[in-house]
Amino acid sequence: MTTFDESRLILFAPGAGAPSTSAWMLAWKERLATLGRVVTFDYDYMASGKRRPDPHSTLVAAHRAALASASREHDTSVVLAGKSMGSRIGCHLALGAHVSACVCMGYPLRGQNGKLRDEVLLALRTPVLFVQGTRDSLCPIDELEAVRKKMVAPNFLHIVEEGDHSLLVTKTWLKRNATSQEAIDATVLEAIRSFVVTFARAHAT
């Protein structure tokens, strides 16, 4: 049974360190395209070749502009997906935008300075799926679970055992468990598919 929906828009935002044309982003864009129309974009600092991210308000404004541009065809269901920083800014945007759901891949719960960044998650009302690796130092699973218990928004977690911040698993673990990165990625996609189909569509109606 196909779960592709041409009226579903998935706005896919990159992380802070690599643009939408990175191999990781392109691979996941292709996978997400089995669910709906996927649109990617780059934040202003990336587009201008800078390495330091723009101020928070500028990032949110760029994300908002990308959403407005991508949704001009009046899609009935909009999912904000993102990697790392892109997922966090997507959650901020969801506070004031009418979107069906958020998919956070490698959510940076801890900043580079170690500060816990949970305010937006506690304020969020949009359904959200977290996809997190157990080796991701920016989002310890136990800390995320503690935040999830305090969240008002419907929230779900898919754990990638031995996954890092990019959801990549060590070769040693893959060999020991007789699996592959491709199989891991397929499992992640299935979790996203289930969330989007059973929850995002319901929220949009």
What is the CATH first-level class name? Alpha Beta
Overall body shape: globular
Strand content: 15-25%
| Helix and strand sequence | EHEHHEHEHEHEHH
Helix content: 40-55%
Identify low-pLDDT runs: none
Characteristics:
single chain; 205 residues; alpha/beta; Rossmann fold; 6-stranded parallel beta sheet; 8 helices
Q: What would a concise description of this structure say?
A:
The protein has 205 residues and is α/β, with parallel strands linked by helices. The chain has helices at 23-32, 44-47, 56-70, 85-94, 119-123, 141-150, 171-176, 181-204; strands at residues 8-13, 37-40, 77-83, 101-105, 128-133, 155-160.
Structure description:
The chain has one domain: Alpha/Beta hydrolase fold, catalytic domain (Rossmann fold, 3-Layer(aba) Sandwich), CATH 3.40.50. Helix content is 41%, strand content 17%. The protein contains eight helices and six strands.
Topology readout:
Layout: E1 8-13, H1 23-32, E2 37-40, H2 44-47, H3 56-70, E3 77-83, H4 85-94, E4 101-105, H5 119-123, E5 128-133, H6 141-150, E6 155-160, H7 171-176, H8 181-204
Parallel strand pairs: 1-2, 1-3, 3-4, 4-5, 5-6
